[in-house]
Amino acid sequence: MISYVSPDSSQHADILLTPASTLKVVTATAALKQLGKDYRYTTSLSIKPSEQGMHIRLHMRGDPSFTSQDLVALLNKAKAQLGSKVASVQVDDGEFTGHSRSQGQVWNDIGICFAAPASSLNIDNNCVNGNLKPGKAGQLSRLHVSDSGLINIDNQIVTVSPSHPRCEQNLLVGENNQYSLEGCIKADRSMMPLRFSINDEHRYFSTKLKRGLARAGLSYKGSIAYQQQLSLYPERFSHQSAPLLDLLEYMLVESDNLTADSIFKTLAREQQRAGTYQQASEIVVEQLSDMGLDLSRAQIRDGSGLSRENLISANLLYQIMQLWQSDPQLKALVDRLPLAGETGTLKYRRSVTRAPLKKQIRAKSGYVNGVINLVGFIEKGGQLRPFVLMANGVSLNEAEATAVRKRQTLHPVLRYEKEWLEQQWQMLN
């Protein structure tokens, strides 16, 4: 099924389809209208002195850009004020509640970094890097994890000969950030980069916080307590994220799901509602409806597009692109989309990496199995032409898939996309 909309033509424009990451343009629209371009996440550290040492409360607000370096900087401020002795550590983790992943996410994505949980305790992308290298045939592969103190992986992937007919690797997710890798890897395979999502946010964050305390020279051997809605102690320090417009640019260019879902939940919290996917969905529908858009049939389960239950029409996405052109507050988003052949998810998209489309397309892509979408603008001579092109139910036979994988031919949908976009480009004077 191919659905498209342009200024002078459309096809199947009102059929509900899986948007995948093109849903991020919906999230960006709602966030910029509600929160404003200068909105910042504020992570606070509050302290209270005592004879036993200082009592620390860390108030986490789900900042998707928060890092260990930011945490240590906060702790250093506290140390400079009250010394190195710590009596207790509490963490407020109540900003986001309910499930940390949306309804309708594919279960076997859970251990992969692009599906990292959107948590109140976001830190360092909730992700751990690694890689897998083949050994000698018949032996186990060699697994490297960037930080084995954060996750534990039982590697049972066996190296097989290059002539082995088929190999696949399976990641099994257990409790307490325990994982198992099973399957095989061919002996002539190059290094396979891996990125593991954490699944026990409290265990992961506790390790990060204990390390941060040590790096800041703070002595504490007790446990870390988690509680929702902790009040602030009198002495307070804070860390602020970059402005929302910068976070949205990162989300759009890199198609970052953690940023998208964290911002999505924040929309609910800033309306004094529970920080859940359900409440955020209702907020987004209400907001866009107030802007004159019809979302009565749309299904929005998250802000990232990871849920396979999301359903959006090409016509709705096209109307949002028109809003980006006409609304002064939203115009800033146009230049923050990936640029064809240059940045983000369009840097290597083979349909747009050559003239006349290279550097002439600003668009958000959306891809999951069976879905290839593109939403944005064609630029020519200072003119912007909005477009939406969605392909759902995409399936190749084995010969086609092999040829595409070996880059012997362009994917049929991308070939169609290239030809269609070139036609649109020609229509601009």
Automatic annotation (TrEMBL):
Signal peptide: none
UniProt-listed SUPFAM superfamilies: beta-lactamase/transpeptidase-like
Pfam families: Peptidase_S13
Cited InterPro entries: Beta-lactam/transpept-like, Peptidase_S13
Keywords: Carboxypeptidase, Hydrolase, Protease
Keyword Protein biosynthesis listed: no
Gene Ontology molecular functions: serine-type D-Ala-D-Ala carboxypeptidase activity
EC number: 3.4.16.4
Protein family per UniProt: Belongs to the peptidase S13 family.
Name of the protein this chain belongs to: D-alanyl-D-alanine carboxypeptidase/D-alanyl-D-alanine-endopeptidase
Provenance organism: Agarivorans aestuarii
